Amino acid sequence: MMPSFTDRNPGPQDASAARTANKGSVDCIITKYNHRGYCNIVQSSMSPTRFPGEQLKFMYDVKVQPRFTVKSSIPRQLPASIDATVALLAEAEYLADRSLGTVLYLALKMGRPIFLEGEAGVGKTEIAKVLSATLGRRLIRLQCYEGLDVAAAVYEWNYAAQMIAIRVAEAEGEHDRARLERDIFSERFLIKRPLLQALEPDTAGAPVLLIDEIDRTDEAFEAFLLEVLSDFQVTIPEMGTVKAAHPPVVVITSNRTREVHDALKRRCLYHWVGYPSAERELAIVRAKVPGVGKKLSEQVVAFVQALRKQDLFKSPGVAETLDWASALSELDVVALDPATVSDTLGVLLKYQDDIARLEGSKVKELLDEMKSDLRAAE
User: Fold this and answer.
1) How do residues 153-192 score in pLDDT, each as one tens digit?
2) How far is it, in rounded angstroms, from Cα 160 to Cα 143?
3) How far apart are alpha carbons 302 and 370 in whole angstroms?
4) For the chain: N or C, fewer Cβ within 10 A?
């Protein structure tokens, strides 16, 4: 069975990747070929590795067994209403409330960036991924970090290739410096980073640009983003200004580890992504972890909701709830008990001080309160 390729049409390299031999078979999914002709092998029985497509058949004989099918995305029109936006997210099992659907609808309709702020693990990044998948648009992700600069976020010149071009020109007797300068500062020597890629035209429509965890960067980078977010353009001194024909769908996320400058927020539509209600979180668990039992899912959600009321350094997010439900399902747990909860607290809580607060009788006390509340609600 041939794998599905997300970034291009299958070619001769695909056939070599799908060969089966008598040894060295790898259970994997090939997701894409990047610009250097390398394929990414993921979810394999060996450590993730990158191989040149043409050399793959000489290094390993790959038996491809896709765990899921990635179909070609068909571009779709933007949703025409708030209800249509909520339904669009629900297609990818993202259960949004109406307030989030309203802000997303307005951001898409007005062509404005959306600024999503909230605790880690509540589903901010997932919104951009869902929009990309459901709208059939390319997802371009800029993961922010301290020290992020223009060379990593926007563009840089391929200096090694430029030096080679200069040496070749000198060897050929090229003396027209103006022509040589135009040549070495042309697009073929330009390495495009996420922000510049997002401004390029795309046949599938304007891409979804995810600027993830903007609060990790410094104020200097925020100031640079102002030009990108206000005019959707980037100025390259050697080439001029690159402006998007159609603005990308921009999603900016922040975990609020520091305050982001007002000038950046004013260019966006703002929404706080909080923890979901018990009813919505239960629906999320049942949609994302279909193997979990009815009783266990109710107890998991009720216990996590009770944990968030405790004085913890970091309360568990929806991501931790899903991880815990999956872990309990793998352990064939039918109902929560103090021993099981204590043994699996590391799935929910990521700080030792928080785990220590729940040791001893505290877990049993929370479980008794949770079960009492569930009985009262029946």
Assistant:
1) 999 999 999 999 999 988 888 778 888 888 889 999 999 9
2) 26
3) 6
4) C
| DSSP three-state, residue 192 | strand
70, containing H or E segment? none
Provide the 3-class DSSP secondary structure of residue 83.
helix
- Among 17, 5, 4, smallest CA distance to 61 is for 17
Instruction: Find, among 293, 153, 261, 149, the residue nearest to 210 by Cα.
Output: 153
* Cα pseudo-dihedral 190, 195, 199, 204, rounded to 10: 110
Report d(CA 277, CA 297) in Å as an integer.
14
Amino acid type, 179 = R
Helices 361-377 and 294-307 meet at what angle, rounded to 10?
120
State how far the Cα of 41 lies from the Cα of 27, in Å rounded to an integer.
9
Task: Cite the DSSP H helix spans in 69-208.
Answer: 82-91, 98-110, 124-135, 150-153, 159-171, 177-184, 194-197
Q: Determine contact, residues 226/263, Cβ cutoff 8 Å.
A: yes
Q: How far is 258 from 117, CA to CA, in rounded Å?
A: 11
Q: What is the pTM of this model?
A: 0.75
Reported as type and span, the H/E element at residue 56 is helix 56-59
Q: Which helix (H) or strand (E) holds 158?
A: none
Cα distance between residue 349 and residue 342, in whole Å: 11
Yes or no: say if 221 and 264 are a contact pair by the CB < 8 Å rule: no
Confidence of residue 327 (pLDDT cuts 50, 70, 90): very high
CA distances in angstroms from 196 to 187, 230, 241, 247, 301, listed in the order given: 12, 15, 11, 12, 42
pLDDT, one tens digit per residue, over 68-119 is 333 335 678 899 999 999 999 999 999 999 999 999 999 999 999 999 999 9
User: Who's near 107: CB < 8 A, 6+ residues apart?
Assistant: 113, 114, 249, 269
Find where tokens 């979804």 sit.
208
Rounded-to-integer distance, Cα 198 and Cα 145, Å:
19
**275-314 burial, b for 16+ CB within 10 Å, e for fewer?**
bbebeebbbbbbebbeebbeebbbbbbbbbbbbeeeebee
